[in-house]
Amino acid sequence: MSETHTAPALPAPGAGQKARKVRGGGRGGSNWWAHIVLSIGGFIMVFPFLWQIVMSLSSTAEVTSVPPALWPEELRFENYVEVFRQVPFMSQFWVSVQVTVLTVLGQIVLCSLAGYAFARMRFVASATIFAVMLSILMIPNQAYLIPQYQIVQNLGWLDTVQGIVIPTIFSAFGTFLMRQFFVSMPAELEEAARLDGANSFQIFWRVMLPLAKPSISALAIITTLAAWNNLLWPLVVTSRAEDRPLSVGIASLNGQYVIDYPVMMAASLMAMAPILILFIVMQRRVIEGLAHSGLKG
Predict the structure, then answer these.
(1) Using an 8 Å Cβ cutoff, are 209 and 181 in contact?
(2) What's the CA gap between 92 and 243, in Å, rounded?
(3) Matching CATH number, 88-294, of 3.30.710.10, 2.40.37.20, 1.10.3720.10, 3.10.580.10
(4) In whole angstroms, what is the distance from residue 182 CA to residue 203 CA?
(5) Which of 51, 106, 108, 180 is most exposed by smallest CB count within 10 Å?
(6) pLDDT surpasses 80 at 5
(7) What percent of the chain has pLDDT above 70?
């Protein structure tokens, strides 16, 4: 007696993929949710900047009203003109540029040299000296504010650019950042350069420093932000408005009894614009520099 065998039914083409999409929501669905969450997070981060722009174009009554006006009835671009009337904006802008450029150049040179020495050279108590230098990061700047002021005063550098720059021209963090990069470099590079007759400085200048561009870029951006926004030290060592950087000039717009918020927001936007442009241009280098140096060693 013959038996009849029935072939098992094959699933329809694409049925498994449809089932997986139903169970897991599908890759497209998860991407949509990711875009929605990221868009909400991005808007939350950008909202203070957008609100600052709105405030700079509003009147004081609109800004201080409860609830505040989400959009001004009339765009007041004269708030930006008022900034130049209340503070010597261009003089303070030039002081900020000088302070920032000199501080960045000084830290790149000194921190690169110190970082290379700690990473590649062996000298007496190098580890101890490096540990003591890093301990500076644990001390707040206010602790040595008075001794620094006395030194600058004795040198006759009050109300000068060098009085603002010299105490901030070196940083323990910058030295640590550069040291971490130089430590990660292969020793064969130095050995090959020494076989070619190069001395220690030539190895540093011609071999190591060109390879350290990502870390130098990161150090430059971090130092630029710190120098441009530095408020306490320039406020202490300067007394005349034209000798002060923009950070101090904007803070002076904060009156004792009345605060002109639209003018202050306009001045903040004008001071923020150069740094914002610089960060957008150098953003990739900053990420590369921190990835190569800050996460190793």
Answers:
(1) no
(2) 7
(3) 1.10.3720.10
(4) 12
(5) 51
(6) no
(7) 85
